[in-house]
Every structure is written in structure tokens, then in C-alpha cells.
């Protein structure tokens, strides 16, 4: 290649340098193909010990980015053309050059769809999924939705729909954070972290937004499992911590707190951590409600509450109602929606809270009045400070 084309090539390479630094957690590989006549000479580079490990011409060498680019450019002088692919999660940057021109192109990795079998196609045809079979196959296989062959499992279509609907319900919240260079999500009582993995995929590979995930759980086994899954997927932008939600303090700004089916007061712990960390949005789907069941009293309703099922349902309503009101008191706009059909699970309410102001005295006053009226002492109030 001539000097003019090499100079243009170097300009594109230098523009790529900042991206390589900012997106190091998402980097997968660099592929380079030189061509001389009809012969092709291929090399591939991956990250090793924070350096680029290039395998080319039967040799393997480590380079800093500047050394790597200098070598690639110098080597191009010996060939007619170059095809250089920088591959990260969700995006490939293709730089092609010869003696006439040098071009750069950004390619969406999701444009290449894997073939979907007839059974899977028939099961998902009625919904436009946010996390699609085909582009998301590696993820969906890892979390157990698909078989190794890429077919949807008979007993997992409901789970797939639930997870995708969760993404749908918070998609707007994510997009409202578009002004941020990167979004940090804290998954409280994360369990196997399926939601974190799905959101990680969606934010980075569909929305093309940088992100970072922290999963917290008291179970050492599920933390180990989540770490292994992240390793299998190559999701370097995740950490999983075995710690109590009440004692944990994030070491970075938190944008979104999520928690799915955290049992009883574990949901309160997630909400409290969200408020204490000044999260811009909190999304929880509560599970069982035990704490207030034996606390609350309201004599006027005894003719109804003498029935155990009514007493339990009212405790559920009171628990989530007070949670929502207290969040409003701390400056969040709160909406409560049905997450999925009650036919799937009766624990199907989602509480969505978005920080809008410092506090809301009216909501706090209403909270304390209701707390006194029913004679209850919710955990959330004790740990929210």
C-alpha cells in the first residue's frame, strides 16, 4: 500500500484508540487480513495481560495499543490491501484500505441472524421481542432458555416471555439515561442474575450503550454461579458480591436498582439500598409479604379480615402500598403495574420508582398517618436513611 493510504489508515487507527480504552470491558478481538495478489495473510489479536496478543505468520507477540497499530501499519506497506476488523460486543468496526482508498464502516453484530427452527418460530411469533432469538442465542443458551442447538425449551417459553416483558417495562427508563456515557445497574438479591445478564445484553448490544452491573446476594453459591455465567458469556462489565444488602455501600454512582422476587423484607432492603445510593430509578417485583401480616390491626375490618385469605391479601396490599408511599416521600415518582399475568404467579406486581425531587412532605405525612392507623412498623423505614 502507498504512503497516502497508510496515512489515512493511521488516522482511523488513532480514532479507534479512545474507543479501545473506553470499551475495554466489551472488547472481543481484532482480525486483520492482508492481501497480496490472490494470497491472503490472516492475523488475530486478543487481550492478554492488558496487552494485545497478536498471532500472525505463525508467531505470537504482545503489544501495547500504540505498538500494535504501528506494527499493523508498517506491515501494510508490504501488501496490496488490508481488511481490519475491531470486534466488540454488539458492534464490529471494519476498516478496509488499498492504494486507491481507505474506508471505515460500523456493523451491527445483531444483523447476522442465526436460523430459527420451526417450533421456536411458532412459539414466539406473536410477540416482537426486545431480546430476540437469533442475535441473543449465546445469552439465551447460557440462562437456559434455549438448548445447545438453539431450540427453545418446551418449559421455558413462559420464562422467556417474563424476562423480555421486564425489559419492555423498563426500556423507557433506560433510554431516559441516554445523556450518560455508561449506565450502572445494581441487582439486589440477584440470585442467578438472569435479569442482569438479559439487561446487560440489551443495553450494550441492542441499545449500543456502555453499562456496568453489580450483583449482590447473601448466598455464596449463587454468586459463584453468576460469576461463572459471566465468564462463559465474556461479560467483563459485571461483578458479583457476597454481602448483606443492609451493610453494602456501592463504590460508584448507581443509576438503576433492580430486584426480582426478593423474599419478604429483602425487597425492603433492595428499596432502602436504592434510596441510600441515590439511584435514579428503582424497579422491584416483590415476593412473599410476611412482615406486616401479624402486625396490622383495623377493628372495623375484622368481619372481613377474619378470613385468613383476605387478611393475607390485605397485608400484601398494605405492604406494597406503604412501600410506594414512602418512596414518594423520598422524592420518587412511583407507578405500580402488573408485571405478568396472575395466572403465571400471584406475585406479579412491579413497583417502578423514578427520582424526581428531594422529598415530598405530603406523601411522608400520609405514610406516617397510615402507619399509625394500622399499627405497623415497616422495615423499609428503618433502613432507608
Automatic annotation (TrEMBL):
Residues 158-294 form the Methyltransferase domain. One of its GO terms (biological process) is methylation. Gene3D superfamilies: Vaccinia Virus protein VP39. It comes from the Bacteria. GO terms for cellular component: cytoplasm. InterPro entries: Methyltranfer_dom, SAM-dependent_MTases_sf. This is Methyltransferase domain-containing protein.
Amino acid at each position: 500500500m502507498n504512503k497516502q493510504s497508510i496515512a489515512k489508515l493511521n488516522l482511523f487507527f488513532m480514532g479507534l484508540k479512545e474507543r479501545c480504552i473506553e470499551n475495554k470491558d466489551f472488547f472481543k478481538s481484532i482480525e486483520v487480513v492482508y492481501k497480496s495478489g490472490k494470497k491472503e495473510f490472516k492475523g488475530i489479536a486478543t487481550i492478554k495481560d492488558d496487552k494485545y496478543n497478536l498471532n500472525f505468520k505463525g508467531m505470537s507477540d504482545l503489544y501495547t495499543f500504540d505498538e500494535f497499530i504501528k506494527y499493523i501499519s508498517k506491515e501494510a506497506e508490504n501488501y496490496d490491501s488490508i481488511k481490519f476488523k475491531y470486534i466488540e460486543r454488539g458492534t464490529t468496526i471494519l476498516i478496509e484500505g488499498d492504494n486507491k482508498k481507505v474506508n471505515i464502516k460500523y456493523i451491527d453484530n445483531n444483523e447476522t441472524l442465526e436460523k430459527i427452527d420451526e417450533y421456536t418460530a411458532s412459539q414466539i411469533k406473536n410477540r416482537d421481542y426486545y431480546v430476540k432469538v437469533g442475535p441473543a442465542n449465546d445469552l439465551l443458551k447460557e440462562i437456559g432458555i434455549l438448548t445447545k442447538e438453539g431450540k427453545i425449551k418446551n418449559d421455558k417459553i413462559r420464562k422467556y416471555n417474563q424476562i423480555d416483558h421486564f425489559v419492555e417495562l423498563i426500556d423507557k427508563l433506560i433510554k431516559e439515561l441516554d445523556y450518560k456515557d455508561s449506565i450502572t445497574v445494581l441487582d439486589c438479591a440477584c440470585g442467578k442474575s438472569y435479569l442482569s445478564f438479559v439487561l446487560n445484553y440489551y443495553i450494550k448490544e441492542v441499545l449500543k450503550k456502555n453499562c456496568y452491573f453489580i450483583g449482590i446476594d447473601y448466598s455464596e453459591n449463587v454468586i459463584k454461579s453468576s460469576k461463572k455465567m459471566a465468564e462463559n458469556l465474556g461479560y467483563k462489565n459485571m461483578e458479583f458480591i457476597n454481602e448483606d444488602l443492609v451493610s453494602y455501600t456501592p463504590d460508584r454512582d448507581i443509576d438503576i436498582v433492580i430486584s426480582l422476587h426478593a423474599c419478604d423484607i429483602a425487597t425492603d432492603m433492595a428499596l432502602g439500598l436504592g434510596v441510600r445510593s441515590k439511584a435514579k430509578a428503582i424497579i422491584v417485583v416483590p415476593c412473599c409479604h410476611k412482615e406486616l401480616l401479624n402486625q396490622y390491626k383495623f377493628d372495623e375490618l375484622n368481619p372481613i379480615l377474619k378470613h385468613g385469605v383476605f387478611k393475607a391479601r390485605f397485608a400484601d396490599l398494605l405492604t406494597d402500598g406503604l412501600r410506594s408511599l414512602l418512596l414518594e416521600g423520598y422524592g420518587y415518582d412511583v407507578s405500580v403495574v402488573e408485571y405478568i399475568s396472575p395466572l403465571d404467579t400471584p406475585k406479579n406486581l412491579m413497583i417502578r420508582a423514578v427520582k424526581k425531587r428531594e422529598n415530598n412532605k405530603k406523601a411522608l405525612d400520609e405514610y406516617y398517618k397510615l402507619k399509625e392507623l394500622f399499627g405497623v412498623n415497616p422495615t423499609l423505614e428503618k433502613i432507608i436513611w
